[in-house]
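PROTEIN DESIGN WORKSHEET
SECTION A - STRUCTURE
LENGTH: 255
TOKENS:
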């Protein structure tokens, strides 16, 4: 991981590139997160951060540009030619006041796009997607920015498909999702959650992303192991059971 061009000398990044020969990736670098970073990079190198990375021939399919908030169309085109991916961090950008990415430009390119938590303001992928879309709506004053009317008119579904498809490479996994060779990770929506009541199954993903926050998961599987079952974490259930047994021992129910 390289934090950014402000935190690592160009010679160090070139050395990493040479040492990474044969390494399958991923290689993460924070790039163009803030306008101040862009200004500093221009002052130091004469060009913008992503422009510099592309010009130096550093980025390829192993590289993940984290944030990629402040870009020009030619930079997006350069990333697309390189095969690198980007990791957008909407809640971090909102929390730090960093700005909004050119989502329409990135979506129109062939660049792999996924999401990350970065500062860990939140670690909820639904909120990341919600902020990603709503920020664009506020900036552009239009609706359904991330929808793709010709093939996928549902905004949340299109965003989900794009970020899931690129998630494997960003996380260093060979595959992602419910496919052969991927980790067995799964989320089971709780159909009884108020946000999902009456919603057709074809619109579940949109309801999950754009509804009010709630407790939507009845089950969560991580790497083939259930960590939430019937809406409760096994450890939480065992703690509750131990507490109940302790209370019973202290104050047994009178016959």
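SECTION B - SEQUENCE
RESIDUE ASSIGNMENT:
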């Amino acid at each position: 991981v390289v934090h950014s061009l402000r935190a690592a000398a160009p010679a160090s990044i070139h050395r990493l590139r040479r040492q990474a020969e044969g390494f399958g990736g991923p290689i993460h670098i924070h790039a163009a997160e803030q306008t101040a970073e862009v200004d500093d990079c221009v002052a130091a190198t004469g060009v913008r951060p992503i422009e510099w990375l592309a010009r130096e021939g550093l980025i390829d399919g192993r590289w993940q540009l984290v944030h990629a908030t402040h870009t020009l169309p030619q930079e997006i085109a350069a990333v697309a030619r390189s095969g690198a991916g980007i990791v957008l961090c909407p809640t971090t950008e909102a929390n730090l006041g960093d700005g909004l990415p050119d989502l329409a430009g990135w979506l129109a390119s062939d660049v792999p796009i996924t999401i990350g938590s970065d500062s860990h303001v939140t670690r909820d992928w639904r909120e990341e997607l919600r902020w990603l879309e709503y920020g664009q709506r506020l900036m552009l004053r239009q609706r359904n920015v991330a929808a793709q009317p010709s093939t996928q008119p549902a905004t949340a579904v299109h965003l989900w498909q794009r970020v899931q498809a690129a998630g494997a490479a960003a996380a260093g996994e060979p595959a992602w999702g419910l496919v052969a060779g991927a980790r067995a990770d799964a989320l089971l929506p709780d159909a009884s959650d108020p946000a999902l009541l009456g919603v057709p199954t074809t619109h579940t993903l949109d309801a999950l992303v754009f509804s009010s926050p709630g407790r939507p998961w009845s089950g969560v599987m991580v790497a083939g192991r259930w960590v939430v079952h019937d809406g409760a974490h096994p450890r939480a259930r065992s703690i509750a059971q131990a507490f109940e047994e302790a209370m019973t021992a202290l104050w047994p129910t009178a016959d």
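SECTION C - NOTES
The mean pLDDT is 88.
The beta strands are 27-31, 63-67, 85-88, 113-115, 186-189, 217-222, 225-229.
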